Amino acid sequence: MSTFTVVEGRDPLLSVELAYGEKVIAESNAMVMHDGLVSVEGRMSGGLMASLMRSFANDESFFIQQIEGISKTGQGQIMLAPQAPGDIKVLNVSGGDQYILNRGCFLACDAGVSIENRMNSLGSALFGDTGGFVIMQTSGSGQVAVSGFGQIFEAAIEPGQELVIDNGHLVAWSTGLRHEISAAASGKGMFGRMLSSAKSGEFMVLRFTGHGKVLVASRNLSAYLAGLSPR
């Protein structure tokens, strides 16, 4: 099986080693360099309709990279990097231990993992910043690499607990978790909650419950880009 290794540093890279015939799927334009013992080809993921759905409904790339080991005498190596600076985390998935990935957070997965499109709820799509109308969910068994803007923190949630997350920081979460959208601040009535949220600078949040893990990034890419616009 291909080997995923995070090369730590100020801006980490993902090193992937592949034996002959092993394949890895990566986000478009993720390649930094390779040793010539792998092939890199662009292709559609899951056919025309699935690729169109990724591109138009979820702001993901229409094409993905298929990377394959081509050396019969040794392992090939390729270095991958996300488009935005920040941490890379490798998730192990199998059976019922699967994840939903926020848009722009998928980096790569091995051949044992499929990234499937599924419809998001209307509220989460419009206000939750959880990946748009079509979200990506893992299936199968293997490794998935995700990226976040800034540092990634992993939080475990147990039954009876609740975790409140500013929705612009969400990277990925276990399929065993449930979430609902609400105003960030408390108050009497919807107007009171929205007014209090506006004063605090926090607006919509996600309240996660159930059993599983949530990965959050220290930085909010949308807020960062909005701050750059006036300049």
Give a written overview of the molecule.
- InterPro entries: AIM24, AIM24_sf, Trp_RNA-bd_attenuator-like_dom.
- Pfam families: AIM24.
- This protein is an alpha+beta fold.
- The chain has a single domain, classed as Mitochondrial biogenesis AIM24 (Double-stranded beta-helix), CATH 3.60.160.
- 16% of the residues lie in helices and 47% in strands.
- The chain contains 4 helices and 19 strands.
- The protein has helices spanning 48-58, 122-128, 189-200, 221-228, and strands at residues 3-7, 13-18, 23-27, 31-34, 38-44, 63-69, 76-80, 88-93, 99-101, 106-110, 113-119, 134-140, 142-147, 152-157, 163-166, 170-174, 177-183, 204-210, 212-217.
- The strands form 4 sheets. The chain has a 6-stranded antiparallel sheet. Strands 11-12-9-16-19-14 form a 6-stranded antiparallel sheet.
- Strand 1 (3-7) and strand 2 (13-18) form a beta hairpin.
- The longest helix has 12 residues, at 189-200.
- The radius of gyration is 19 Å and the shape is globular.
- The protein starts with a strand and ends with a helix.
- Residues 122-133 and 192-201 have low confidence and may be disordered.
